[in-house]
Design goal:
This protein is mostly beta strands and 138 residues long. The protein is 14% helix and 41% strand.
Length: 138
């Protein structure tokens, strides 16, 4: 009985050695380790909501693990190529941005989770605060 107890104790102690918790890469929330489609659910300017009422006029953003994003309007999805932009995330400064051939779009991260991202424009880079949700099942 005593040798079994010693063996079990050694097994438990050796299994618990050198385990460390690594922080989650926040990019995973955006691209899900491959690609993820987000719907621009709201476009807000202060108290005013400028979100298109009909779903086919709303925009989606497809985020890829390669740090490229493609912007599409649902109505033209499959008939026109999306607008390609690179994206970046700076948690230290609470910034999320898109870079492309024209000016960069820089946002303050208001909130970020697996089910909702709220981005407020910085430096007048975009007109609206945008609320992104994973593309829903209809």
């Amino acid at each position: 009985m005593k040798p079994n107890f010693v063996f079990l104790l050694l097994l438990i102690l050796s299994a618990c050695g050198d385990t460390s918790i690594e922080p989650i890469d926040r990019y995973i929330l955006v691209h899900d380790n491959s690609s993820k489609v987000w719907l621009v659910d709201k476009q807000l300017d202060g108290d005013k909501d400028y979100t298109p009422l009909q779903i086919e006029y709303k925009e989606i953003i497809v985020f890829h693990e390669s740090r490229n994003a493609y912007f599409h309007t649902l109505k033209t999805l499959g008939t026109k190529p999306g607008v390609k932009k690179s994206y970046w995330l700076d948690e230290r400064r609470k910034e999320f941005g898109f870079g492309g051939t024209k000016k960069d779009l820089v946002f303050e991260i208001v909130s970020m989770s697996r089910n909702r991202i709220v981005l407020k424009p910085k430096k007048n880079s975009y007109k609206y605060t945008i609320v992104l949700v994973p593309f829903p099942e209809y």
